[in-house]
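Journal club prep, shared notes

We agreed each person brings one worked example of a sequence with its structure written out as tokens. Mine is PH domain-containing protein. I'm keeping it raw so we can talk through how to read the token line rather than staring at a rendered picture. Sequence first:
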Amino acid sequence: MHKESSVRSENRTLELHSPDGVHNCVLRATDAGEAVAWFNTLHSALNVLTLQALQEANRVLGSLLGDLQHIGWLARRPLTESQNGGRVGSESSEDLERWQSVFAAVTERELRLYESAPWSPEAWGGPLHTCPLISTRLVSSSRQTDMITFSVRCGTPEGVLTHHLRAETHRDLANWARALVQGSHNCAQSQHELVCRCMYQGQPAQLVLHYENGFTLQEGNIAPGREPRTLWKFPFERLRMSADDGARLLWLDFGGEEGEMELDLESCPKPLVFILHNFLSAKIHRLGLLA
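Then the structure, token by token:
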């Protein structure tokens, strides 16, 4: 399975890459029209081979990864410090203009990015980056000049990790977007409930986020065998606003006289915030309010 991309200079060259990223071949057509024809033909043939590879990978890797939903090649901009959860990067301004080829896979629970196409179960088990779909969102897609791009954001304990990705065609973009959004919604529905400890008004508590019932705050540090007392409970439709400080504090406003509820999660709130957004998105999609 090879990856191909249209080289933008002169609009009449094609670049083919080997799956391991070691070899490449540049082909030049007589004019832009012939280059487009070759690109479309090669791209269609590779799509057929990719579907065959997906079926074979699922046959071999089912016990390791579960069902793969979508695989293929994308281009990714190098991560910057702000995109990488605050960790210092070494990319120069010249590096930021360069797109890097990555092999991507959407499983039932994750978006996985690899430096090259995995050839063995061991390689499939060692991705370059992994984003849990339950806390991952497709936030934008656009066409800038002749580039078809989209961004994926993931809430992590270190903050928000953003991947800026590029697809080769609008159909590719639609397929990736569908796989990511449906995957996030399916994860939200199967997760169903999330419980995290926190501090509320200086006292230990635990916040329960339930796919059907919404928000429940219960007292924490209870004695064994005793049911926790419910401090407050609100359905999703009561939520008017949510905000966080990116460090440990989460604010929820349910429109009541009590105003904003401040919760100290004692860790980065971004994973919880992204999971909340996916819960809400999945519920809205289920109601048929979004196409």
